[in-house]
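Revision sheet: structure tokens.
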Amino acid sequence: METPTQKINVFQNPNYKLLFWGVLVSNIAHVIFNFAISLYILRIANIAYGQDNAALVQAIYLAVAGILMVVLTPFGGAIADKVNKVRVMYITDYIRGIAIILGGIALFIIDDAFMIIVLLFIVNIILSINSAFFTPSSNSLIRFLLKDHELQQGISYLQGSHNLQAIIGLILGGIIYSSLDIMWIFIINGTGYIISAISEMFIRYDHTLHAGGDTSVKAILKDIHDGLRYIRGQKGILAVILMALSVNFFFSPIFSNGLPYFVEFGLKLEPDYLLHRFMTPEQWFSVISVMFSLSAIIMSVIIAHAKPKASYARTLKKLITIMVLVTAISCLGFVFYYLDILSINAILLILIVSMFLMGMITIAFNIPVGMVIQTRVEKHQLGKINSLMSVLSQAMIPLASMVAGVLISQVSIIAFYVFSIIGMIVVNISYLLSKNANLI
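Predicted:
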């Protein structure tokens, strides 16, 4: 019998291996899709409504996805604790794959900018609804595939794989988006989801350990209420959720709204920038994003072989402080660029360094939090607790996207970055002073 003192290799578990490689394939295609859409929505909105309103259309697009995730993910989490998680995963992957391929085929026919935006929103809604049910099942499945002493390695490798997927997807996204029509990216992404669904169908685990019970809306709402009450009783976890909720409000739009806007309406308009003879603005966008994922993989490997700690309170406080500092420096770089104080090459170098640091810090923060959840929460509640944590930590992102869109389009891009800097600093100080943050 394997014991915690023996060498651990989670890839000897065939079910974990299927989960790992299935997620790898679909997420690479998904990264390519998200990379392309973040720029394409701005380009099409610019054609339809002009540059001043393009950022607002992009913000609405992001907010729609965020609102659906916030509303539906708790239901997805409650259902994940009552049914076969694997079945939920492959059904939702098949739906997403077919929907995106059909969307790609439709783009061969449609050439009106307004109708293309409508199509993008329809596909966005279908993806978001299915993601709300897929994510809680996939996130809570690993506990049923691995033993407790294997969890840290399993979670670390999955976290690292997410970033490997991002590196491959972002590099391919930059190349494909600048050389092929957008409809091919739809078809590639849809095919990735279908391949992933086929892989997931072969995962086996004993779902009777958690499945069963009432799946009516009333029962699900009760489960969500019980989950919220459970989280309220976990003061340390609650402190982390509230911090993530607040910091994501200011942090997330910097990359979901601000960075694509910089590429489309900043970098693209520069006549001369670093390596312009060899790299398009889209490829620079992919390189900047890859820095985050590359450093995250390095940190994932380091943590996978580290010993778990009894408490992560001081570590998490240090990490969030460093993250806020690095992000604030990046925001100041953008401010000085738009004020014509920093050159385009200077801001590109700042982005490369800061994204590399942020990738390491994010993984160093997320893995311990994931470990705490996986080990402290009862197995039969993992689905709804994971989904509620995801929703609560990201509940303000749809509003944040809208606020960012309004600030960028109606005030100025500089006002958006100043707003983000001040907000992150306030949240960081509040977390450092929180007594409950010492309980994690």
